[in-house]
Structure prediction request, 426 residues.
Amino acid sequence: MSDNKPGFSTLAIHAGASADPATGARATPIYQTTSFVFDDVDQAAALFGLQAFGNIYTRITNPTTAVLEERIASLEGGTAGLAVASGHAAQLGVLHTLMQPGDEFIASNKLYGGSINQFNHSFKNFGWNVVWADTDDPASFEAAVTERTRAIFVESLANPGGIVTDLEAISKMAKKAGVPLIVDNTMATPYLCRPIEHGADIVVHSLTKFIGGHGNSMGGMIVDGGSFDWTASGRYPMLSEPRPEYQGIVIHETFGNFGFAIACRVLGLRDLGAALSPFNAFLILTGVETLPLRMAKHCENALAVAEWLNGHKAVEWVRYAGLKDDPYHELANKYVPKGAGAVFTFGLKGGYEAGVKAVSSVNLFSHLANIGDTRSLIIHPASTTHRQLTDEQKSAAGAGPEVVRLSIGLEDVDDIIADLDQALAG
Ligand SMILES: *Cc1c(COP(=O)(O)O)cnc(C)c1O
Prediction:
């Protein structure tokens, strides 16, 4: 064994996994079971009281899912992970642990359209109030802070593409306000960006996208950065006050720098119920093994397509931070030096009609609402994902009428370009 810390590609294959103790199976087995037999009454009592770690019921823990949790936490450089059924369930789980009714959180205005909806409507029904700030203006986050602020939420590479967030500047605002910075790292993945190294306290993922990577499984992940003091301010009672359902234990005091992940599991997931299926955990784990290879190829193909579109006569603009003259290129060099991801937008001179025509004319590309598949994907946000937003919100989110979004896959780049060429012709 070398003393050197294993590299990213090694961790992507090995972190969290050892040969199955019961059978020697090398691949992580799918523990497709709802529940686990207790050794005896005393062990059962210890498990229920959080005095021992072990499996009770798959809504709370599962051995297949546990490998995925350790793998992603390790790739992100966090202390612990919690897998859930989807990216949206991860966002729900995080805020459920941080927010009481009447509390506020500040969110970047350049987010995945589904997150804008979740924050504006469903979360408001829980009494959790979102306050929007401008991703490109870190000072706007500071200006939005009030007594009731409990968190700041941003995306590293922001949906619908091409935007790089200045994580260190926004992390400074979060530290000043004494609240955690939550970073949705779905579009970058830890291969391109590790937000905890730039001041994030919590990372969330939709595993549905590049991490699973094959367009076949929904999943989400919460990663505890282990850095935040949940007790100092008294603002996070789920972590700093005795829990009646666990004989009065105080979660932060008992579990220290992985207390946040524990609270999300034993208070959040236990009651909210959005558990990941062990079968999905297995498929996503298989995807993670090739994450470094896939992300490198996704980025290489995306840059070639962006450069080609940049010279096309029907194209008004291309917004890809990997392009040298892009306004986000400098931030990209800092935060995603290995590549600016595979999702980006471009604007068609022909506006809304041209966008509709492009998505109707592709053959190799699939017209659908997803990103991060091996396959190349296309969507016209104004007529689909961002349809419910007001015109103002659409433009703020980078989803105006002329905008087309691509998620570049792993096909031969010549075939990807040829398909766009024929779809944009005429
Ligand atoms: C897809 C996505 C989500 C939501 O994830 P689901 O797995 O679809 O629930 C959240 N954030 C970003 C950036 C996404 O792309």
User: Anything to note?
Assistant: Residues 160 and 398 are 7 Å apart (CA to CA). The mean pLDDT is 96.
